């Protein structure tokens, strides 16, 4: 049997669900990042299994496509010894007209411990969480939140820079449609970073400054002396109408190339949540620059962060829900 892990850092996270970063305290965010950091070493050794979640069941329910998030939740659950089921939405009864809520309640009746849900509608995952008695993790809902992406971004930055507080982070591109931007803004401002958003006027949400960020429409001005450059994909699947004249023109003004990057600090790191569209929001050479780009490291940190979230939620459930004790 795989060994249980030596106890990691105590977790300051006592919630049933992880539905967003908004509303989490700095201590809760730190607690999850610290726990994730403790899982990085396990993921780098030959024997990657622990038995921390042995006997637990996790169901991945993705109503939108995913490479990184779905795979890393599956790996995270398996590395912790849980049983992980990937629901194939395309071949499920959703295709016969079953509603999201009925699907969730059906899965809930099978007594999973965690449902990991991605849905194209903002708010759908929170609604679903009200109907089930297991833990729910938001793996991305519309343009609302993608909390585990923000946590893995924060872990990546903290490992590279040693801190989050005081750093200048520029989030660039399609901020308007981006759940990654929203979760990162909540997390980074809570942790004391200075956040700038840079986008064409059509892709900046109205009154974005109310989220505690500075808004720019000029890349070079926005990137000036920043420590972290976080690029975003054009979320065409969420666009109704034309928001940019052409991808060629978009790249010319808002795509990250070495010329625009020169405005940032010489040691600024380059991030992208993926999937990337090379030549649209980021130059291919910049994306692959081994001295500056941490894009692959973000993917690696994704597994550790999802292990931490699954671990923390199931620990909180064990401690707080008397009904669980007999399960
Ligand atoms: N960053 C992210 O959510 O990627 P996937 O869509 O591949 O999961």
General form: globular
Please, how many helices? 12
Strand order of the largest sheet: 7-6-5-8-9
Taking all Cα atoms into account, the compactness measure Rg is 20 Å
Based on DSSP secondary structure assignment, what is the total number of beta strands? 9
- Give the termini separation: 21 Å
* Poorly predicted runs: none
Helix coverage percent of residues? Answer: 25-40%
Largest sheet: 5 strands, parallel
Topology as a string of helices (H) and strands (E): HEHEHEHEHEHEEHEHHEHHH
> How much strand content do the residues show?
5-15%
Q: Give the overall pLDDT as a whole number.
A: 93
Helix/strand/pairing class, anyone? alpha/beta
Ligand kinds: phosphoric acid mono(formamide)ester
Description:
By secondary structure, this protein is an alpha/beta fold. The protein has twelve helices and nine strands. The chain has helices at residues 26-44, 68-79, 100-109, 124-129, 147-161, 179-190, 219-223, 247-254, 258-261, 284-287, 295-320, 322-325, and strands at 57-62, 83-87, 114-119, 135-141, 168-172, 194-198, 214-216, 228-231, 269-271. Strands 7-6-5-8-9 form a five-stranded parallel beta sheet. Helix 1 packs across helix 5 (147-161). The protein is globular. The two termini are 21 Å apart. The model has no long low-confidence stretch (mean pLDDT 93).
Q: Which properties best describe this structure?
A:
alpha/beta; 38% helix; globular; binds phosphoric acid mono(formamide)ester
Could you write a compact summary of the structure shown?
The chain has helices spanning 26-44, 68-79, 100-109, 124-129, 147-161, 179-190, 219-223, 247-254, 258-261, 284-287, 295-320, 322-325, and strands at 57-62, 83-87, 114-119, 135-141, 168-172, 194-198, 214-216, 228-231, 269-271. The chain is of the alpha/beta class. The relative contact order is 0.16.
